[in-house]
Write a structure and sequence with these properties.
Keywords: Signal. It is built from 2 helices and 20 strands. It is mainly beta and about 220 residues long. The two termini are about 20 Å apart.
Length: about 220
């Protein structure tokens, strides 16, 4: 079962021949997603990276782009972001249509050691149009990006293990902790959209305000090779 987040990316990028690992997914909500936060640990990067592996938590809906900060591993990591062995290239990122062109936008790409917790925050600004992405490591903001999709009406949230070209997959598990998803209005049915892929382990979804704010203490995504 795929969330609208994953379905939207597949629709936008299907021509690239992507393949996908196991995922945790939510959506569509009967409301709209306006904020999401998680602490993501991508684990250990491939020892001999081959183009291209992208790991991310994403939010989207059927008519928006995909907000997808995360960790990348490609064939030439040094040229990509200055990374050395044992590091990921991490950035805020957005995939969608901008000025009539389907494109990938990224904030600064920064080398980050493997097995490092990465805080990822997506929030709809007060103008109700601009999404602000903030990526933080060890208390320091390392990458930011803005996109312009408005409230993600009937939106979804999901994890992505995205393989392109000749990527061999991941070599360790990924974890998401203290995940919080905030909706524009309460939706107690949101929990019913949950999809859990093979080998994925997740704690219960909880809400303390009758369905507007949802929390998931931990999600573990298995390695894929």
């Amino acid at each position: 079962m795929f969330s609208l987040t994953i379905a939207a990316l597949a629709l936008l990028s299907g021509v690239r021949g992507d393949s996908w690992g196991p995922a945790f997914s939510l959506g569509p909500t009967a409301s709209a997603i306006i904020e999401a936060t998680t602490t993501f640990n991508p684990g250990t990067p491939p020892k001999n990276p081959v183009d291209a592996l992208f790991l991310w938590p994403g939010v989207s809906n059927a008519t928006s782009g995909l907000i997808q900060s995360g960790a990348d591993s490609i064939g030439d990591m040094s040229a990509y972001c200055g990374a050395s062995a044992g590091q990921w290239c991490v950035s805020a990122s957005y995939f969608g249509v901008v000025d009539g062109q389907t494109t990938q936008l990224s904030g600064p790409l920064v080398p980050v050691n493997g097995n490092t917790p990465i805080n990822i925050h997506y929030k709809l600004a007060s103008d109700q149009k601009t999404w602000d992405q903030t990526v933080t490591v060890n208390g320091q903001v390392i990458s930011t990006l803005k996109s312009y999709d408005g409230p993600l009406i009937n939106g979804g949230w999901g994890t992505g293990t995205e393989l392109q070209a000749s990527s061999k997959g991941t070599e360790s598990v990924q974890t998401y902790t203290n995940t919080t998803i905030i909706l524009q209005s309460a939706d107690l049915t949101f929990i019913n959209t949950r999809g859990i892929g093979s080998g994925v382990v997740a704690s219960d979804m909880l809400t303390a305000d009758n369905g507007k704010t949802w929390t998931i203490a931990s999600i573990t995504i298995p390695s894929m090779n």
